[in-house]
## 1
Amino acid sequence: MQSRLSWDHEGGVCSVPGFKAGICASGIKESGNPDLLLLYSEQPAQFACMFTDNAFAAAPVHYCREIAAQRESVHGVIVNSGNANACTGLQGQRDVRKTAQHVADRLGCEADEFFVCSTGKIGIPLPMDRVLAGLDQCMDGLDHVHDNRAVAEAIMTTDTQPKHTAVKCHIDTHEVTIGAIAKGAGMIYPQMKQPDQLHATLLAFITTDAVFEPGVLQKALREAVDQSFNRISIDGDTSTNDSVICLANGAAGIPPIRDNTIEYEVFRDALTELCIHMAKWLVRDGEGATKLVFLQVRGAATPHDAEIITRAIANSLLCKTAWFGGDPNWGRIIDAAGYSGARIVPGQVELRIQDVCVMGHGTPLDYNQIELDEKMQEPELTIELDLNIGDAHYHMWTCDISYEYVKINAEYHT
C-alpha cells in the first residue's frame, strides 16, 4: 500500500523520540576517528534482526543470535568499528560478553539487553582496555539530540561518507518515525537470514516509535531486507559480520501493529523504502565505485532462475570492469547469464542497456554506438534482460570495479 512519506535526510536513528546515542574515539582505529557507538532506548524496545550466513560468523553475531532467541525486548546496541572480532576464538566470545556487561552494569540493565556488533579487521583481538574506557565516554555523552551524521560516522570503516536518514509515515492519525544509519563499502554481498535460520561489512541500525504484535516487526524487516540489502553487491564477498537490527520503542502511542492489516502495509512499505534508499547509498559509495548499476531480469521460467541470472551478472568481474570503462560489452552480460545455470532459450532473449536494445531474438541488433557510448558515461546505468519464456523477474543494484578498488584492497588489511 502506498502512503505519502516525509523524508529527513539530516535524520537518523536519533530522530526517533526516546533513543539516545553516545560516541567516542577509543583508539581502535589508527586514524583516531570515532570508533564506538552506544545506541540506547530509554524504554525496553522490541526488536527484529537479520545476520550473515557466513560459516565464519564473528563472535558478536553469535552473541546477537543468542539474544534474539531468548529475549523479547532490549535496551540498545553497542557497535565498534575498526575491529571485526571475527576468528578470535573463545577470547572473542568473552570480549563480547564483557562489553555488554560493562554497559549493563552502568545503566542498570541486564547484559543480554544489548546487542553487540563489530566491523573492521578480521583475526585481531579487541583492545578491551580501550573499548571499556571508550564505552564510559559513550555513556557519559548519552543525549537526545546527538548529530545523526556523527553517529553514522562512528560505525564507518572504508566508507567515504556517513549514511543516515529518517522517514515519517502516518498510521491512523499518528505520525510514525523510522530512522536509520548504515555502513559498508567493501566485502558487500549480503545474504542475511533471520536468526533462527542462521543467517569491510554491512551494518544497518534502524529505530522506530511504532509497536507491534509478536513476530510482526520481524516479518516486516525480513520483507524489507529481502527487497533492499539482500539485493546489492559491491564485490560479491559476503562478510563475517553483516547485521541489520531494528528497535521499536512504541513512543508514537499507536496500538500494536497486527499482521495482514493496512497499518502493517503502511509501515512495511515505509521501512522498505528506507532500506532501499540506504542500500543504494551503500552501493554508490562502494570502494572505488564510479557507477551505480540497476539490473533487471524478466521473463524467466522461475523466480530462482531470474535471481541466479541477476546475481551472476552483478558479480561478474568482466561486466563490472566493462562498466567502469564505459563499454557496453553486451557479450559479457550474455555470457554471465549463460553460465548462471538458469533455463535460457537463446533465440528468445532480448537485452537492453541504457534503454538501447542491443540484442533481440538472441542475435545482435543495429544500434547507435555513439549514443550508447555517451549513455555509458552516466553515473547510473540500467540493464534489462528479458528471457521471454515465463513471468518471473528479479532485480539488484551493483556497481563497477575500478583501479581504486584494487588499490584500496591491496593496501587495506581486512
Note: The mean pLDDT is 94.
## 2
Amino acid sequence: MSETNIEKVVIVGSGPAAHTAAIYTGRAQLNPVMFEGFMAGNVAAGGQLTTTTEVENFPGFPEGIMGPELMERMRKQSIKCGTRIFTETVNSVDLSLRPFVVKTDERSIKTWSIIVATGATAKRDPIPGTGDNELWNRGVSACAVCDGAAPIFRNKPIFVIGGGDSACEEAHFLTRYASKVYIVHRRDELRASKIMQLRVQEHEKIEILYSHKVTRAIGEDLLRAVEVEDLKTGKKREMPANGLFFAIGHKPNTDFLNGQLPTDDQGYLISLKGSETTIEGVFVAGDCKDKKYRQAITAAGSGVKLKIRGANIFGNFQVVPGEPISHQDTLVIELNEHL
C-alpha cells in the first residue's frame, strides 16, 4: 500500500476542540482532514455553539460574539492552516488495524491517526414550546454557565429541570442572577449527592418542586411562563418564568465508534493522559470526554493537548498494512508552539 494514499491525521468533529486540533496539526504540516458532519445529532457543523446566541465568555471578544459567527471564524482559520474539510458525517471507523479506516456515506479514508472531537449533546425532554423553532435560546437553554448571566434572566424567576448533581449545580449557579430558582423533579427526592442536596435545600432563593414536571413552555418571542403538573394530584398550574434550563445530562456523540474505545458509566470517552487513548494513534478531545466543564474554552484547550505518535506520519519508515506500529519505531512529536 502506498503511503501517499494514507492521511496523516483525520479529525472527527467541528467544535472548538476539533478546530483547535486542526489549527495546530495544520501548522505542524500534517495536512489534516476534518469531517465536520452534516446535521450530526441534529446540530449544524460547528457543534453546540451554533445553537447559542451571544457568547460573552470567550476571550478576545469584549462585546461578545454570536455562537455561529465564532465557529465560522474558527472554520476559516482551520482552512487557512491547511485543513481539508468535508461536510459529511462519519458513520463508522475501524480501529482494529493500521492504517485506520474512516467511513462516511460519500467516502472511505485511511489514516495513521484519528482525533475524536465530536462533543456531547444536551439531553432535552420533548416539552411543547421548547423546540428549536419555538423558545429554544429564547429563554430555554441547557447550559446555565453559558447563558445564565444573560440580561433576560437577571432578577427573574428561573426553572431548572432535573434532580441530580448537574441540576443542583446549575440551580445554585443561577441564584447569582435570578430572583428565584425552582428545581422541578419528577421524584419525591433528589438523586444528587448529599452535599449538593443540602446546598440547594438550604438556599433561600431555591425552591424544589418534588413530584412535578414541566408540561409546557409559554411565550411568543421570549419565555414568559411555564406550566407545571403535580404528578401526585394531576393538578396543573401556570407559573411566571423567564428561564427554563434542562439539566438532565448530556449524551456524548460517540455512537460511530461502536464501542472500540473505553468509556465511563455515562458514555464519556476515557483518556489515559492528556488526550491519548488505549489505542496508539487515536486521541480524544473536547466534550466527548469532558463531563465537568463543557465550555468552549476548555474544549479548545483540550484540542491542543495532542501527541501525534508514529514516525510513519512523516514517511520515515515503512509500515506493514494490517500490523500495529511497534513502540520501538515510534517517536513523539509534541504539537507545542512558542508564542
Note: Confidence is low (pLDDT under 50) at residues 307-339.
## 3
Amino acid sequence: MSRAVLFLLVACAGHFLAACADTTVGDNGARLSSGIYLDNLDTNVRPQDDFFQFVNGGWLASNNIPDDKSSDGSFERLSEAADADVLSIIEEAAAQGGASGSPEQRIAILYRSFMAEERINALGIQALDEDLSIIDAIDSERRLLEFFALAEYSGVTSPLEIYVMPDFLEPERYRLYLFQSGLGLPNSDYYTDDSEQGRAIVAAYHSYMRDVYMALGYSRDAADKATSSSWALELGLAAHHRPPEKDRNYPLWHNLYGPGHKNLPSGVNWDDYFSSFELSPETVISVAQPEYIEGLALVLKSTPLSAWRDYLKLRLVSSFAPYLSQELQDSAFDFYSTTLEGTPQMKPRWRRGVSFVNYAIGDSVGQIYVREHFSPSAKAQMDQLVANLIVAYRESIESLDWMGEQTRANALIKLDKFTANIGYPDKWKDYSTMRLGEALLPNVREANRWEVADQLARLPKPVDRHEWNMNVQTVNAYYSSVQNSINFPAAILQPPFFDPQVDEAINYGAIGSIIGHEIGHGFDDSGAQFDGDGRLYNWWTESDQAAFKARTARLIEQYNGFEILPGVTVNGTLTQGENIGDLAGVSIAYKAYIYSLGGKPAPVLDGYTGAQRFFIGFAQAFLGQSREERARQMIKIDEHSPEKFRVNGTLPNIDGFYEAFKVQPGDLMYRGVDQRVTIW
C-alpha cells in the first residue's frame, strides 16, 4: 500500500512542481534551471496588479483543496512528501524489527499500536475507564488540583499548563512557566463573538458537548445539564484569558513566584497541583498570565465539583479523541475539523499514524530522515545563504536613517550573536526510558509523560543554546528569542523553498526570504524585546523605540485594510510580528541576492530577469489557499497573514519590486513612496 501512496504523492507533487525550460551554468559548472513553475503562472493577470495571482493563479485554477485538508499549498504539499518519506522509514523499521529497546523497535511499536483499528474500536469508550474513575473520585479541591497535574502528564487539556524554557531575565538557566489553558474553543475570542458565524460555532460546540456526554452514558437530560454547566465554566475561564494580541508583550510573561510557588493567589492550596511535579523546594516559577491565575482561583471557589467533573470528562474525551474508537473520532472531527475549518474528510489513517510517531519520538525518526534525505552539500549552501543574509542585515542596520547610534550598536551586537541551526540538531533526544506496549492509549499517555519528565529534568541544568524545538522532518522554520537562534529543519530545505538545481535568484527569493524573515523576528515587535543573549532587556533608546512603533503602526494599518472575505479583514495587530518578518525578510534577501551577483548581470531565464525571478520565488513559496471556515478561524488565532497578503501586502513596500516589474501609478500593486513602510 505504501508504494501506491508514495507514487500518488510524487505524482501530485510533480504536477505542483511543473517547472521551467531555460537553464544557465552555475559556479560549479552544473546546469541550473530558472526555478519558475511556468504551469502555475496566470499570465492573464498583470504582475503589477495582483502578483500573487500572476505567480500562482494557474495552480489555483487547476487544484481544488483535497477533501482531507482545510488548506493546500507549498507547505502542505511538501509536508505530504515528508510524510511519505517517514512512512517508508516506519515500514523499514517494522520490517527489520530492531533490537529490544532500539529506536527502530519503538518506531514500529508506536505505529503498529496506532494502526490497530479493530482493537481500538472494540474498546470504545472503555479505553477511558481508568481516567473516568479518577475523575469520578474528585471530591475535594485537593483532588481536583491533583487531576490538573495528572492531566499535564497525560496530555489532557486542563485549566493550567506548564512549560520549561530559558528564563527571560537569566537565559543561561531554565525556568518553569505556568500558562493559561482549559478552553474547548480555539481562544477566548470565540466566547464573546456575537456575529452570525460566532453564534453558529457556539451552537455546534454545544451539540458536540452533548454528543460527548451521551457517548459517556449520560441521559439526554443529564447531557443537557452537563453541557450548560461546562459552557458556564469555560465562559468563566475565558473571561480571564489574556487575548492573543496582548500576549505578544513578553515582559508581561515574567512574574516570579516562590520559592515553593509562594505568593500565588491565596485561598487555593497550590501545593496540591505542584507537588505532583516533584519540584525542589527552591523552585521559583514564572506565571505568564497572573491575572488568569487570579481569575482561576475565583472560578475554583465558585464552581461546584460536579461541574468540574463534567468539564474534565469533556476535556478528556476531546484530548484523546484521535486515539479512540471511530465513533468518538468522528464526533470530534465533525466539530473541530469540519465546523471550525471546513474539512469534510479525515486524513487517511496511515498519515495520522505518521503524525503520531513524529509527535511521540520525533528525534528517533529524524535521525534516519536526515541520513536518507539531507545532504552535506545542501547544508553548506544554506550556510552560505545565511552568511550573505547576515552581511545584508548588517549593511542595512548600519544605514538606517531612523535609528540612533546607541540603538544601532546594540542591534549590531545582537546580529553578531545570532546562531543558525541548519538541517538537524547536534544532539538527539534519547527515548530509552519510554515504556511502550501494544495498546495505543497507554502509549499516548507514556509519550506525554516522557515529554513532561524530560522538560522538568532540565530545571537544574544549564541551558543548551543549540536545543531544537521542532522535528527535522517538519516543513517549517522558527526563531527563538531566548536562544537568539534561527532554525531550519531538513524537511523545508527542498523545492519550492530551496533547490540546489536552480538559479540562485529563486533560492534567494524563497528560502532566502524565509531566512531573512526568521532573522527579522529578532527585531520585530516581540523579538526586539530581547538582547543578543536571549535576555529580556530594553536595548532601545526612547526616541528609537517611538520611531520603530510609528513604522509598525503604519504596517498594522495597511494590513487592517486587507479584506479576505466580505466584512472579514486581516488583524494587523495580531499579525504584526509576522508581517514585519516578511517585510524584513524580502527586503534583506533582495539585498543579499544583489550582493551575491558581485556586480555581474544575472541571466534572463524563461523570459524573466534575475530580479523578477527573485520576487517570483518569494511568491511561489507562499502559494496556498484555504477553505472559508479555515480562513475565518485563522484570522482569529494565527499570527500569520493569509498567503495572498503575505505576498501582495509585502511587495508594494519594496522599491526593488517596482524596478523589477516597472510598477507605475495606477497599477493595483502601486503604493506611493510616502505610503511605503520600511523598517529594516
Note: The chain has a mean pLDDT of 94.
